[in-house]
Amino acid sequence: MNIKAVYILGIESSCDETSASVSRNGRILSNITAGQEIHARYGGVVPELASRAHQLHIVPVIDVALKDAGITVDQLDAIAFTRGPGLIGSLLVGTSFAKGMALSLNIPLIEVNHMQAHVIANFTFREHQEGEIPDFPFLCLTVSGGHTQIVLVRDFLKMELIGQTQDDAAGEAFDKVAKMLGLPYPGGPFIDKLAADGNPFAYKFPHPHAPGLDFSFSGLKTAVLYFLKKERLLDPNFPGDKTADVCASVQETIVRILINKVRLAAKETGISIIALAGGVSANSHLRKTLTETGLEENWKTYIPDFEFCTDNAGMISAFAYHKYLAKDFCSMATTPLARLPL
To answer: Phi and psi (nearest 5°) for 197?
Structure first.
């Protein structure tokens, strides 16, 4: 019996990455992403510049995604797009293009929640790639520049938010600390790289208190800021050759905060299947620590491939396949939302 191939084009434009992907029955055939280097000179994403860059990139990115997948537009069964959360100007570009394309091809339109798609990155693989996937229910720690969440995942389309940051996200904390240290933007990867040569216990930073399964990173950023000011009164060149130690100590603190909350979530829910997702899931220390903690706690742990950790359309088209099977389509009246609940 031949199973009909379902081809879905996914479009991701929530922040500063323009990405397009084609999936066949949920497996990734292509995943093309164009970044925006212009933001580095400003030390952060400039929303207006991001939306303009999306307008420049979206047509060539989709064109390459289709060519890499080896299909033509008339073979597509649906168009999926990120509805939110994200920067509204950036989301408008992806949403508008997806609508126009779906309308011209007379095929269904599928809206995707960006944060739910990050969770489904744990089920996202290239067509001939083998990989283990978590059983339901499982807990997912989703960590990015804009979000830090613990999600109870009951099924592909049933997710419950049980913990989140009350202020800043872990990824934002990494980037802001990197800026304090004079590192380039985005700073998270630079902290990760420098920390490899540092002592994670050289400096002690506080673990800000947040109730239950929630997080808080604002206090940690302030603590690092005052620590650097104090040290620079004694040595204007600080941290100098101690930069790696500062990076390792900050990274250790952030990772321990995250892992401690996951331990608590596992204890409270009785769930021992733990997954990781989001851009910060590319952090080597977080991946290593979660894996080691999983062995200690007898958890089954799952971490997506690097390709599907940061913002990408592969996770959009893979998640959209499950919505396609459920006939969960949206109308042309659907509008993007900068804030979209899980």
So the answer is: -105, 10
